[in-house]
Write a structure and sequence with these properties.
Layout: H1 9-13, E1 18-22, H2 32-46, E2 50-56, E3 66-67, E4 70-75, E5 77-79, E6 87-89, H3 93-102, E7 107-110, H4 115-127, E8 131-134, H5 139-142, H6 152-164, E9 169-171, H7 174-182, E10 188-190, H8 207-213, E11 221-225, H9 234-247, E12 252-256, H10 262-268, E13 273-276, H11 280-288, E14 292-295, H12 304-311, E15 315-319, H13 322-327, E16 335-337, H14 342-354, H15 356-370, H16 375-394, H17 402-409
Parallel strand pairs: 1-2, 1-7, 2-4, 7-8, 8-9, 9-10, 11-12, 11-14, 12-13, 14-15, 15-16
Antiparallel strand pairs: 3-4, 5-6
Helix pairs in contact: 2-16, 3-4, 9-14, 12-15
């Protein structure tokens, strides 16, 4: 919310909306969805919109924040079973209806699909407030990783119904839009993700950190960043590193993040470094001080860590899906394997770790690509489409003041 921006004269002419944004996760929680939403909220405020954020209370000492253009409403939440550290919001239709009847938002944006999100869609529909949604997470794909594969079809049906109740569903890639369209989703709109290239940069490389890891200048460091959870396919990361270590015994594996699989991964990779959760400059240094980034997940809708690794100048090895499918050109700015081809993934990881010249060439192209993924352009596109949805719902034009619509409608 501290994003600054010089607004163009044309942008100032756009209507400034009151936007209620509903989410089950937000900063200071650490995950890709929370980070993305914080960036987008900051972008909306920088463009003159007011944001009311509705989220679950994250702890007993958690207090609602109120800043210029930003207000929070804290709802009740519950821990996600078998997924420590994450919450889902409890149903809150009455709370939302009362709040929005007292101070009506121009538009409701629902970022997550839990009970709180469903309540928000229902309350907005009853009050005839236009509502949009985000598709951030393949929850139906997660079920198989937690012994609940039988839930995949009903969860998929719920998600489709949820999003089809909204005027737009925002997705991060064209491939995801195509896949969801084939599954019966309607009114999809692509808004990509950006990366902070001032934070994630090759210059953050730390000789001191590499010494802590016990590696020399020429020893390859293999990095994984993200939640240590079953849906991230981290067993393949361990398998790939073992193949690398057979050829390069001085290589080192570093995991950044935490989660329910930490103990099991440590048992399988006893020589790996588990750095825990890192943020800000510490996270940037961990990225830049590595050499190869492995990302074998098949459940991502995007995968922000892929873009962060590219910005940090790493040789990225990933499956040809999600962000990697849109951003990585195999052999040019990273290395790809066909989705699900574990042998191919391991071969690409071994190739990257064993060839310093290849890594250097990939790193330069990776950084150049990341510098094109500007958060400002992403936030412009997102904010403009919210205005379009409001205009469609109210019959307004992009230069109409929301207060004028409110007065006209009584």
């Amino acid at each position: 919310m501290n994003e600054t921006r010089i607004l163009s004269e044309e942008l100032w002419r756009e209507p400034h909306l009151r936007i209620a944004l509903v989410t089950e996760t937000y900063s200071p929680e650490i995950n890709g969805v929370a980070m993305t939403l914080e960036r987008m909220v900051g972008g909306l405020i920088a463009r003159g919109h007011r944001v009311q954020l509705i989220r679950p209370r994250q702890g007993r000492t958690d207090d609602a924040r109120h800043d210029d253009g930003f207000d929070e409403v804290l709802a009740h939440g519950w821990k996600v079973p078998r997924y420590e550290g994450l919450l889902f919001g409890l149903p809150a239709r009455s709370l939302l209806s009362r709040s929005w009847s007292r101070q009506r938002p121009d538009l409701v944006h629902v970022a997550t699909e839990g009970p709180l999100g469903w309540s928000a869609v229902s309350a907005a529909a009853r009050l005839r407030i236009p509502v949009t949604s985000d598709f951030h997470t393949n929850f139906d794909h997660y079920s198989g990783h937690y012994g609940l594969g039988w839930l995949r079809q009903p969860v998929g049906a719920y998600l489709r119904r949820f999003h089809n109740r909204t005027a737009r569903t925002f997705v991060p890639t064209k491939a995801m839009a195509h896949a969801l369209q084939e599954r019966g989703y309607r009114r999809l709109f692509v808004v990509a993700r950006g990366v902070d290239t001032a934070l994630f940069r090759p210059a953050a490389r730390s000789i001191e950190l590499r010494r802590e890891w016990g590696v020399g200048d020429d020893d390859p460091v293999v990095l994984s960043v993200g939640r240590l959870a079953a849906e991230k396919n981290l067993w393949l990361t361990v398998r790939a590193f073992r193949a690398i270590a057979e050829r390069r015994p001085t290589a080192r594996m570093v995991f950044v993040g935490d989660g329910p699989l930490r103990a099991a991964l440590a048992a399988q990779a006893p020589d790996a470094i588990f750095a825990g959760v890192r943020t800000g400059e510490e996270l940037a240094a961990h990225y830049a001080s590595a050499d190869v980034f492995l990302f074998p997940s098949l459940t991502e809708t995007f995968g922000n860590v892929t873009l962060e690794a590219l910005a940090s100048g790493l040789a990225v090895v990933a499956y040809d899906c999600a962000a990697a499918a849109e951003l990585v050109r195999d052999g040019d700015n990273g290395l790809l394997a066909d989705a699900g081809d574990e042998t191919g993934f391991v071969m690409q990881a071994v190739r990257a770790a064993g060839d310093a010249q290849l890594r250097a060439r990939l790193a330069g192209s990776a950084r150049a690509l990341a510098c094109e993924q500007d958060w400002e352009a992403v936030n412009d596109r997102f904010a403009a489409e919210l205005v379009t949805v409001w205009c469609e719902a109210t019959g307004a034009t992009p230069t109409t003041s929301p207060s004028a619509i409110t007065s006209r409608d009584g």
